[in-house]
UniProtKB/TrEMBL annotation:
GO terms for cellular component: cytosol. One of its GO terms (biological process) is small GTPase-mediated signal transduction. Residues 155-184, 400-420, 862-888 are annotated as: Disordered. It comes from Tetraodon nigroviridis. Residues 862-879 have a biased composition (Low complexity). The lineage of its organism: Eukaryota, Metazoa, Chordata, Craniata, Vertebrata. This is Dedicator of cytokinesis 6.
Amino acid sequence: STTSERRAFAHKINRTVAAEVRKQVSREYGSPQLTKKRGGVSNPLSLSEVVEPVDFEEYVSSHAPGVEPGPLRQLMEFPQDDLELLHLDKECITLEPRVPDEEDSLDPRVRDALSVYTDDWLVIQRKYRHYSTTFTPHSSERQRERQRGLVKQTFELDVTTTDHQDDQEPQDDAKRRSVGLDETPRGSWASSIFDLKNSTPDALLPSVLERTALEDMDHCNTEARQQGRHSDLLGLYPPPDEDEAVERCSTVDVPKEHCGQRIMVKCLALKFEIEIEPIFGILALYDIKEKKKISENFYFDLNSDQMKGLLKPHTPHIAISTLARSAIFSITYPSADIFLVIKVLKMPTSLVQLEYSCEHKEKLEKLRLQAEQSCNRLGRFRMPFAWTAIHLVNVVSSMGSLDRSDPDSDSEKKGHGTWNERKKKTFERMSIADDMCNFATFRPATLTVTNFFKQEGDRLSDEDLYKFLADMRRPSSVLRRLRPVTAQLKIDISPAPDLPHYCLSPELLHVKPYPDPRVRPTKEVLEFPARDVYTPHTTYRNLLYVYPKSLNFSSRQGSVRNIAVKVQFMAGEDPSQALPVIFGKSSCAEFTNETYSPIIYHNKSPEFYEEMKMKIPANLTDNHHLMFTFYHISCQPKQNTPLETPVGYTWIPLMQHGRLKTGSFSLPVSVEKPPPSYSVLTPDVQLPGMKWVDNHKGVFSVEVTAASSVHTQDPFLDKFFTLVYVLEEYSFPFRLKDVIITESNMEAELKSSMVALRGALLDTCVSFLHQLLNKIIQLIVFPPVIGGQIVNLGRTAFETMALLVNQTHKNLEGNQDHHGRNNLLASYIHYCFRLPTAEPSVPPTGEPMPVQYATVSRATGRPSSLHLSRSKSISNSNPDLASTPVSPDEEVQRIIGSKLLHEELALQWVVSTSTVREAALQHAWFFFQLITKSMSHHLFLTSNVDVPRRQRFPDRFVDDIAALVCAISADIAGRYQKVPK
């Protein structure tokens, strides 16, 4: 090359022949004898000069890959098989697939959710990435793993005189030092440290002088070379240093369901002073600071076989899943304010006013007989009896272990009047307990709890419970007013194992490993996190929880004192349409079609604390509703008096206007059964001819919540998804609250719903992030067909996607890697993203209508969601088109051939804008249209295209989309400072 083409640092380098360099090295560093004979001849060549390196980029650009022959050709080309499209199986932690029972008729929400949760991961893998110098968080660990099985190498250079023992004879060291380099015949360094005269000769080599065939010699040499070889020679190289890494690559985590710190609770024994009737227990976690119940209920039964036999007529079949005595709780936000609350229920016998104490032992046989008779009549009912709580920070911290003074252990259970004294001793250590709440690692503890309190009928609400729990943390006189109950609960609390055996999921699915289905299981208890959790859903879950709160029948005439609420999940209005979707509690069937709340004895305005767990059907319709029937229960047998007397009815429609109805309700109660066709209406409607309690006022309070990866429970997200499903199903007209959705107003309503997504809760948007992005991308790639015209929603959809990505980046700054990329978005792009594979179906019409491609629509202002300073019109199509294209391919060709792609005009277009940031947005928006419209009609990721063809484009498309979305979001956040190249 010429002087101008050479690199700057190589101008002063003298080019020499390699043979001359070798000769000079041989003369300079040869044997000492030869050096002396030469008399120290100096070499005019300077060995400090560096040979000019090869400019690899220049060499590759000047030599075409097809011209360069030889084995080095592969170094110049990009590996043809480096990119491969993989369909990785999703890991299912349960033996059964997490899909709904109904497979024939699925709600569109469920269908789309299942496609997201059950499709395999689509990953673009680079096969030869591990040969690069890229540093990842696993590079050092992987290198150490490779070195673990290698033999440590010791070389002669590493051996020094300091490595020898101090007790060696001094003459050995003198001999070694006396032998110099000049006294050895070979002049080698090895000869200078060994006494060759006194050294032991090597063993003779057999068959050295024998004649051997060349083939045999090669075979023997090949076998000899294979002996003692290192399995991984490059593994000897030290692991890379993170500080010195030139290229860093962050690993993308596989999307998975959120799980907090887990503890296992085993219920070992529950005993009262006398045993006359069955007793049932409930466990749940409460956070008193957040004033929230942070787990669902776990029901356990520790009764003896004799006590269980009393209820056999009411429980003919007992599922093994209801016999669990151990539970695994998840805690996302550990704190010193979490309590494990234990509630005890008993039978609603005539002995309700009788205490379990020693003074009634003489009447024990009579009591047992009465209890047996009551169990035969009232075996399916329960009533509150007692409660207690365990402060978890005392268990997980070293100060709360049993070898010290634990207030809930056996060491201090002398009397009930010493509660405040015991709490005074632990009050000082509560201030430092917040820093020691690590529920993942602590010493297992076995507690014997004896401090039970009577469950008063007028103090059953959660507000009362929070006051009692707060009193347990500080000395107070509130607990002194509670009546103690003599009982003893033995319980074991320990960190949950990583892979527990015989475990059931909250949906009662068998979690791997599950060797034997006949073994008593352990249940995973679903967590209700105290604060928001920003993790997308990855599995199907569709659960409903119903919490009756209170009932006011003070104005109700008649005998309505022992009130129980029966709850049913109805698919219609006929009594036979009660669905068996209600989870069983303990020692009963796995699912049932009705459940009862505990009876509050002699109270016309009772409060409830019951939790009713249900499965939401996959084909939810407007006729599905919750039916509440209120009964007066005759606890004492009387002639001509039925056991159950209905005293009121009310209901909640579960599906209205495309939304699952959840929240808190204050419902009026009807004295008579509802009339036909009541299920599509709410009880707030004044139906003619019906009598209502207290003049149609809301006398029944109930709360309905859902733990669902299908129903968002957010009004903005629900409206958007509902309109998309109406458009996909083409189910016009559709009533959405007070608006009738038709073909004429569908486009405006859909655009307004996308704009309104800015008001959706961030945690809900993140929970349904995968489904939301899929729908937005589908609206961009395949515009919907309305009234025979393809409506271009690309601009509004793109603004919505930019807004969603911006909110994710801005509010979840702690969830980003060292490149500033959000982990949630990176995992979606890496594992979940794929182009839509089918165009929207043309709506059925009576007469064939020509389908037009709508691209001439103009916007009058700049996108409002991008918050730009100037108000300049941006077209959502190419403004230079002479006419309306009739196909996407024709439009792409015109865009490519338009003057906007020429460099000079593009530069003028950039300069003419007010700011560089606005120009960047215009560039990004234009090229986004170009990419999506061209790629959408050449589907490289469709299933009907062979894999080799798909390997050419998917990684480029995914990277472009990811970079573009991140660039737009960065611009919105004010961090985008220049026009992208």
